[in-house]
């Protein structure tokens, strides 16, 4: 029996030993899905706190219930370790590590490289490796293939199997989770794709097998670039509507009545999160090495990046209309998270809005029910969420709604505020009809 057939058999009958490198919001749900499907899974992460928490049967990811972890750990289906040497006994390894951007805007591949360097020490014949981290097209073939295969004298597609499968985890979402979200899979060779697909089909309902790793890498970038560019379009529309004296929210709602050929996006104070503002820049960065300028991505990114400044300028103009200068005014920012009703502040435009208000001399406070403290990574300032929201609303010269958490009572806020700038249309008709409120 060939190595491929032997490994495929172990994957199909679930006797293959599985390792998940990186136990974050992608890796831990994936480990659970494989464990619940009947595979023996070892989670590997250098963060001892994660390993210790899992060893006690305790989840640290909101989307993964502690009782789920407790059941898998006590049933012997899931173990966790910070010791990479266990990889020598593994048949299948999935790499789920972060791929952020550096401050320069270039991809930060350090997490993939360190996971790959560790795995390279333990590579052996009869392994399948799947990279899940969102990255530029070519990463799997250019980075992992040489380091894991060639340097170990292993031939991909014969001795071992290498593929890419983009993660599609949307933290907090309950309708589409790891097990029921279709998974794209593309191999370095056809045989690689077949083995990796056989593995994932043992746990995930739909695996969509594409011809190459590059096709899989690019499909993920298309998904999130599509979002980033369309958000940029409606952000520019908001700027144009303000010049035209037209209500952008009314325009978008009207367009959204079209039952086909249109998808609603809404303008806002900028793009946050660890996916949408970042993933497209992996593609534009790669294209530079082909001497191609991905203009759509660059332009949309420029518009989105400028939105915090646009919001602050609109606040400044609004205060001016109230006979006040921004300098010396009290500004209260509502919502620091990057999107409503979550506690994630990564890349949040709120940090930029606050930074710009401070730069212009405003006395800035913020409130966010999910985020008690914030700090600016580069500018170094730190702030605590104000304890008494309505007192802060009353005291402020301007309330800037940056993240429209559902739990705010916008009617009461309008009632108590002197002036509200609403960058999310959180106040809706109330805001539209109030002379105290300006909307994006
Ligand atoms: N945003 C807008 N206008 C919009 C939509 C979003 O300004 O119309 C802003 C949000 O406020 C946020 C940023 O863009 O600051 C990103 O928002 P998002 O809704 O795209 O949420 P994310 O970053 O959590 O994106 C994730 C992605 N999931 C994965 O990459 C697996 C994305 O592909 C999903 O489509 C998205 O969740 C989702 O739909 O919830």
Q: Can you give me a brief rundown of this structure?
A:
With 440 residues, the chain is α/β, with parallel strands linked by helices. Helix content is 40%, strand content 14%.
Outline: elongated
Strand order of the largest sheet: 3-2-1-4-5-6-7-8
N- to C-terminal separation? 65 Å
CATH architecture of the largest domain: 3-Layer(aba) Sandwich
Distinct small-molecule ligands in the complex: ligand SAJ
Count of beta strands: 15
Query: What proportion of the residues form beta strands (DSSP E)?
Result: 5-15%
Rounded to an integer in angstroms, the radius of gyration calculated over CA atoms is 24 Å
Write the H/E string, N to C. HEHEHHEEHEHEEHEHHHHEHEEEHEHEHE
Give the fraction of residues assigned to helices.
40-55%
Give me some keywords for this one:
440 residues; alpha/beta; Rossmann fold; 2 domains; eight-stranded mixed beta sheet; five-stranded parallel beta sheet; 15 helices; 40% helix; 14% strand; elongated; binds ligand SAJ
Topology of this protein?
Layout lengths: L2 H10 L4 E5 L5 H10 L3 E5 L3 H8 L10 H9 L3 E4 L10 E4 L14 H11 L6 E5 L7 H11 L10 E5 L18 E5 L2 H12 L5 E4 L2 H32 L3 H8 L23 H10 L6 H27 L8 E5 L14 H11 L3 E5 L5 E3 L6 E3 L4 H7 L2 E4 L8 H7 L3 E3 L5 H5 L4 E3 L1
Parallel strand pairs: 1-2, 1-4, 2-3, 4-5, 5-6, 7-8, 9-10, 9-13, 13-14, 14-15
Antiparallel strand pairs: 6-7, 11-12
Helix pairs in contact: 1-7, 5-6, 8-10, 8-11, 11-12
Bound molecules: ligand SAJ.
Ligand SAJ binds next to helix 8.
Question: How would you describe this structure to a colleague?
Answer:
- This protein is α/β, with parallel strands linked by helices and 440 residues long.
- It has two domains: 209 residues, NAD(P)-binding Rossmann-like Domain (Rossmann fold); 215 residues, NAD(P)-binding Rossmann-like Domain (Rossmann fold, 3-Layer(aba) Sandwich).
- It contains 15 helices and 15 strands.
- The strands form three sheets. An eight-stranded mixed beta sheet has the order 3-2-1-4-5-6-7-8, sandwiched between helices. A five-stranded parallel beta sheet has the order 10-9-13-14-15, sandwiched between helices.
- Helix 7 links the parallel strand 7 and strand 8.
- 46% of the residues are buried.
- The mean pLDDT is 96.
- The protein binds ligand SAJ.
């Amino acid at each position: 029996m060939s190595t491929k057939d032997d490994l495929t058999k172990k994957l199909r009958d679930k006797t293959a030993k599985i390792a998940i490198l990186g136990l974050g919001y992608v890796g831990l749900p994936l480990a659970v899905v494989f464990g619940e499907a009947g595979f023996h899974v070892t989670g590997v992460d250098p963060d001892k706190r994660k390993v210790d928490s899992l060893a006690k049967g305790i989840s640290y990811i909101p989307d993964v219930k502690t009782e789920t972890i407790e059941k898998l750990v006590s049933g012997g289906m899931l173990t966790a370790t910070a010791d990479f040497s266990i990889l020598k006994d593994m048949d299948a390894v999935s790499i789920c590590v972060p791929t952020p951007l550096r401050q320069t805007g270039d991809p930060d591949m350090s997490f993939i490289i360190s996971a790959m360097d560790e795995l390279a020490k333990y590579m052996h014949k009869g392994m399948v490796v799947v990279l899940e981290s969102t990255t530029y097209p070519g990463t799997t073939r250019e980075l992992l293939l040489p380091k894991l295969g060639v340097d170990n004298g292993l031939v991909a597609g014969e001795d071992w199997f290498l593929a890419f499968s983009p993660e599609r985890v949307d933290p907090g979402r309950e309708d589409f989770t790891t097990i029921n979200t279709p998974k794209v899979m593309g191999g370095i060779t056809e045989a690689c794709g077949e083995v990796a697909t056989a593995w994932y089909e043992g746990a995930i309902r739909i695996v969509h097998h594409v011809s190459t790793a590059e096709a899989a890498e690019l499909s993920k970038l298309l998904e999130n670039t599509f979002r980033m560019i369309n958000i940029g379009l409606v952000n520019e529309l908001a700027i144009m509507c303000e010049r035209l004296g037209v209500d952008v929210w009314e325009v978008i709602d009207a367009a959204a009545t079209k039952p086909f050929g249109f998808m609603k996006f809404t303008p806002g104070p900028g793009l946050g999160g660890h996916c949408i503002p970042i993933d497209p820049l992996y593609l534009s960065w790669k294209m530079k090495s082909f001497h191609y300028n991905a203009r759509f991505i660059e332009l949309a990114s420029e518009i989105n990046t400028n939105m915090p400044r646009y919001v602050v300028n609109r606040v400044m103009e609004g205060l001016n209309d109230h006979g006040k200068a921004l300098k010396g005014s009290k500004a209260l920012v509502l919502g620091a998270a990057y999107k409503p009703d979550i506690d994630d502040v990564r890349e949040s435009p709120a940090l930029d809005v606050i930074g710009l208000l401070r730069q212009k001399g405003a006395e800035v406070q913020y409130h966010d029910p999910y985020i008690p403290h914030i700090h600016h990574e580069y500018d170094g300032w730190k702030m605590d969420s104000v304890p008494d929201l309505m007192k802060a609303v009353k005291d402020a010269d301007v309330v800037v709604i940056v993240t429209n958490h559902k739990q705010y009572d916008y009617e009461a806020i309008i009632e108590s505020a002197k002036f509200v700038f609403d960058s999310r249309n959180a106040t809706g008709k109330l805001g539209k009809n109030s002379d105290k409120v300006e909307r994006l």
